[in-house]
Write a structure and sequence with these properties.
With 478 residues, the chain is an alpha/beta fold. It has 14 helices and 11 strands. It has helices spanning 2-12, 14-26, 35-47, 108-129, 148-154, 207-221, 260-281, 300-307, 320-330, 335-347, 377-381, 403-409, 412-434, 438-451; strands at residues 51-54, 63-69, 73-79, 133-140, 163-170, 174-175, 182-191, 230-237, 248-257, 284-293, 386-392.
Length: 478
């Protein structure tokens, strides 16, 4: 009976949460700048009686909201940061709202709002049934730069969780069954000596030369790294003018490995290359660790719990108009991508012309290799069991971090996927609160087997502070 009422509550209150998501979509904010989104979501939870703590991990836009008493303590994770350069209207042609502005091409406005929707729905069931247990919503900033949850984890806010549940917008309904790569984000800074590049080049010591030699060494390193490793970089400072030998230059690297040890090993080798480049150019090198995400541990027990709610959660029904918009977005893809999307749609059992799956399907077989991507959710998965699903918020074939994704996630398609995710998470959490601990026991045993006794230790050094803007302390509530 409780599950039916839970779903009914969410269905009755959908419009209010759609408005929240739209407001955040219309005011996209990039990593560590999410004052409007975090203020809005935190205020909603506060009005519902949640106890809200802000500025977690030294981040003004990170918060934790809690309701209930006693155990088990269940976490629901939300995100709300946007991506630079992906501003886009709900349109099937490239049409930015703001040229070169940020946009929600990863759907975090949906991700964060669905978590609040599920948490508030659960709060009402706790009150109505007098249930023991605590619901804790985590407002997590800066996932796109892979460090917000790491700073929060370093403060210990996930340590007492029995389990955590989350989701991500995508182009099908499926459990997240693929591990992700561990990552280290490091920026190298070289200091040299300025000189006139034409008149006295022999007096200069080029920091840019050191950057370029580092990049050459890193590119040769690619041949000698374990399978699944990734090394990519961008020069963040290359000097000020061609006729001045640069006395300062920097380069920002992402180093990915199958696990934390592999990423740490890559960093050690890159720093040797950087020191060698400094020696060759008679410059000095220093570095900043900007992020250190762990690989994601998949918890199949919790994933099965989430997908097991699919029928009670009432899968979304997409209209003909939504199917037509999906097809028009897919038509903007490059030919091979479009053909791959149509082929995948057929394999998912969709009718010709349909690109919006409503039924659940498996993402990958259990135990698949790590993907090339990374997420700071990996840190949480090394602290407590984490269940994660994907729901259909965009057409098959549309990739996140694209303008097409921003358009889809801002449409009614994205909103339907958001509500479905909220219902799945709320139902799964309700079952964890009422089944006598059976699923939690199984999930925690799987977690112990996966971690093999290794305890989580943040990969961001203790002295490194979150890179928050100076104005980020200002909180908005909409």
């Amino acid at each position: 009976m409780g599950k039916k009422q839970l779903v009914e509550w969410i269905l009755e209150h959908q419009s209010g949460y759609e408005e929240l998501a739209r407001q955040i979509w219309e005011r996209p904010e990039t990593a560590y700048e999410e004052s409007f989104a975090s203020g809005l979501l935190g205020s909603v939870l506060e009005r519902e009686g949640f106890r809200v703590r802000r500025e977690i991990g030294g981040i003004p836009t990170a918060f934790v909201a809690e309701y209930g008493t006693g155990g088990p303590i269940l976490g629901i994770l939300g995100e709300y940061d946007a991506l630079p350069g992906l501003s886009q209207k709900v349109s099937a042609v490239r049409e930015p709202v703001t040229p070169d502005g940020p946009g929600h091409g990863c759907g975090h406005h949906l991700l964060g709002t669905a978590g609040v929707e599920a948490a508030v729905a659960l709060k009402h069931r706790l009150d109505a049934e007098g249930l023991a247990g605590t619901i804790r919503y985590y407002g997590c900033p800066a996932e796109e730069v892979l460090s917000g949850k790491t700073f929060m984890a370093r403060e210990g806010v996930f340590d007492d969780l029995a389990a955590a549940l989350t989701w991500h917008p995508g182009s099908q309904n499926t459990p997240w069954s693929t591990p992700t790569s561990a990552l280290t984000s490091v920026e190298l800074h070289f200091r040299g000596r300025a000189a006139h590049a034409g008149g006295a080049p022999h007096l200069g010591r080029s920091a840019l030369d050191a950057v370029e030699l580092t990049n050459i060494g890193a590119n040769y390193l690619r041949e000698h790294v374990p399978d699944g490793s990734r090394i990519h970089y961008t020069i963040t400072n290359g000097g000020v003018a061609p006729n001045i030998v640069p006395d300062a230059a920097s380069v920002w690297y992402y180093l990915r490995g199958a696990d934390r040890d592999a990423a740490d090993a890559l960093l050690a080798r890159l720093l040797k290359i950087a020191r060698g480049a400094a020696l060759m150019t008679e410059t000095e090198v220093s570095w900043d660790i900007k992020g250190g995400a762990y690989s994601l541990i998949v918890n199949h027990t919790l994933n099965a719990l989430l997908t097991g709610q699919q029928h009670e959660a009432q899968p979304p029904v997409f209209s003909q108009e939504e199917q037509e918009f999906a097809a028009s977005l897919a038509a903007t893809l490059e030919t091979s991508q479009r053909e791959a999307a149509l082929d995948k749609a057929r394999k998912l059992g969709l009718a010709p012309g349909e690109l919006l799956p409503a039924a659940f399907s498996e993402q990958t077989p259990a135990g698949g290799a790590a993907s090339g991507g990374s997420t700071d959710l990996g840190d949480v998965s090394w602290i407590t069991p984490v269940g994660q699903i994907i729901t259909t918020c965009a057409p098959v074939g549309i990739q996140v971090h694209t303008w097409q994704a921003t358009a889809a996630f801002g449409s009614s398609i994205g909103l339907k996927g958001m509500h479905y995710a909220a219902r799945l998470i709320a139902l799964a959490a309700y079952e964890l609160l009422t089944d006598g601990g059976a699923v939690l026991t199984q999930a925690r045993e799987e977690f112990r087997e996966s971690t093999r006794g290794r305890r989580y230790a943040p990969a961001i050094p203790a002295e490194v502070r979150a890179p928050v803007p100076v104005y980020a302390g200002r909180r908005e509530s909409g």
